[in-house]
Every structure is written in structure tokens, then in C-alpha cells.
Amino acid sequence: MAGAALLFPLQVAHAAEDMPSAEVMAFQREMITLDTHLDTPESVDRPGWSIMERHDMREDYTQVDLPRMKDGELDGGFWAIYTPQGPLGAEHYAKVRDFAVLRGLSIRLMIAANPEQFALALTADDAARINAEGKRIVYMSIENAYPLGEDVSMLDLFYKMGVRETGFAHFGNNQFADSSTDPDGAKWHGLSPLGEKLLAAANRLGMIIDGSHSSDEVLDQLIAKSTTPVVLSHSGCKAIFDHPRNVDDDRLRALAAKGGVIQINSYGGYLRARSPNPERAAAYRALSTEMGEEATMTAEQWEVLLARRREIDARYPDTDRATFDDFMKHLLHALDVVGPDHVGIGMDWDGGGGVVGLEDVSDLPRITAALLDAGYSKEDIAKIWGGNVLRVMRTVEASAER
């Protein structure tokens, strides 16, 4: 999801007895475990922060690094190039385009700086090869198409950079599509004419189409018009919690009928209704206004920001956080509706994801344990953890070749 870093609560570790068994951990190691939405590139760009070092979410609020990936047996996933939605217009597009290109280069530089630990994946088959080499898998994605401006051919540049999945909108409507959460409602009632060109370009290149954050009307059109299956890289179920970011059962069935996949996210505000905490929200808004753009902060400014955030968390604790059980309700409901061939995991780590009992990437095997307890087979669980999105990717690749 990204753009929600200042909303993270102070995390609390769960009890040791909740940790998965040795058998579960062994099974987690056997399969390829992918998360389809990692906002961790924002962390990678922080001054002084290293993906190679172990961090503590209670100190710096990050949720993914190499040591914790190893703890949670996360083999990799889709690392997002995220840009917040801003004003439309040529003068704004140039700036955000440059930011997105630099964020993509940051992902590539992370790989280049640690070639024994990370590798860029460009095809579905790359996942197994990189995993066999003992490295972490780095697919690249675009969360918000806004930085493409009005030049759809810019998508070719990002494809050459390594991007293999693109979303269309984020929190607000843009030049390509309507957002599910724009306070002004629909602008295009689906895709704009430029958005239809973007869809065609992504299909031509061989990019996975991501409908997360886009409106229901956009999703309907993506499913109907895309030549390949559509994914929802980090979404939830409207039947469990009626939020605009979530998807109703009829649309889940339509998604699955075309071969698509919903990847369930762990963003607490989308999992269930939560009690308002106005003092906390006001304190974070004031802090954000005072500190300004995170992207331009020095290491010293980051330390000040983190200290202030910890102070706010201590003064106004979040006492109504969503839980692991709330997350599992969405996951199990999606499985009930469309089955294990059309469900996956996209936790929204480092972009607002994480719940009580599922605090950072090291906790992922708890999901596997819960799915085994619910009666799902190892074959089913392997599809959920990576097989399904790789199947979609193979279909996309074949379509692009044709």
C-alpha cells in the first residue's frame, strides 16, 4: 500500500507458544514462498538503513530485511515502485517520473550490492532457479501508474528495468483509472481512454495486471478487457469487512473465472472496523506536517522522526489493532469462495501491513500452520504461497510471445 508509514503502531511481539512447529518450518522451507506486495524499497532508500542487517520494528518500524526473511522463510516477492498520488499535469508528471525511475534503480542497486543474496527475476521460471541458488527472489512491480504521465510508452522503460507487474491507481483517481478510495468519487467510471492504452501496452509487453486500489468499475473492465488473468496484489474480502478497498464475492468469482488471483493483505484498516483514536491521528498528522518529505530526510532527521513516533505511540497507544484471526478470516473466506487455485498472499509489508500476531516477515509461517490446521493440503498451500502468481505469470509470458 505504501504512503502509510506514519500510521504504523508500536508493534508488540506475540507469545513464544504461538510459533509454528519444526515440521511447519521444514515445510515452509520446501516450497517457494512469495509475497506479491513488498513496500520495502522505501526502507532501502532510507539513509543508513541496510537490507542486510536485522532491524526491530519496535525501533524503526520496518518489517522486512534479509535476516528476518530467513527467519520467516520468505524467498522473495514483488518489490514495489510506489509513488503517492499527486496533481495531474505535465509539470507534476516529470518530477514523479524521475522519482519512480530512481526508486526502480534503488531496487536494482540493492541486488547489485548483494549479488550472493538477491537476484532479479524476470520470468516465472526464474523463481525456482534463484531459489535453488539460495538467493532471494526480486520481482519488480509498479503500484501506481501515475509517474508514467501521459506517455504510455514509458512502460517500456520500466519493463526494460525489470518491472513485470503494474497497477493503475492508488488512493486517488489519476489519468489512467479511478481509485477505490478517492473521496470525490468516480472520475472516469472505470478506465480512462489512456488507461485502456496502458492495459493494452501491459498485455503486449507481458506485465501482470494488478487491480488493487482501483475501483470496482476498473476491476470489472480489467477482467473483461485484459488478454491475461488479473491479480489483486494486496486486497481483502468485502463479505468480511465492507470497505471500498475490498472485493465482493461476485467479483472474486469473475476474477477466478478468468484465471486471476486475489492476494490477501494484512492492512488492519481493511480487515475490520476499528475504534477511532483522534488524539493519536492528530499527533501523527502534526508530525508529518512538521517533518516534511520523508524521501529527502537525512539520517539525523530520520532518527528524530523515529524518536517522535515512538513518543506518540507511548502517549497514545493503538489499543484496537486488527489481529491474526482478522487476517485469517479474509484468507479463509477467499479460499471458500474461489478455492486454493485463485488465492495468494500480499501482506503489504512496510506499507501499512501487519497485525497483532503477524508483526513482520518473520511471522509468515504462522499462516502456513493455520492453513494446515484448516485442512488445506501441502499442494494447496504451495499454490497459495507462490504457485498461483507464478502460474499467472507464465500465462502472461505466453500471451506476450503470441
From TrEMBL:
CDD domains: rDP_like. It comes from the Bacteria. It holds the Pfam family Peptidase_M19. This is Dipeptidase. It comes from Novosphingobium indicum.
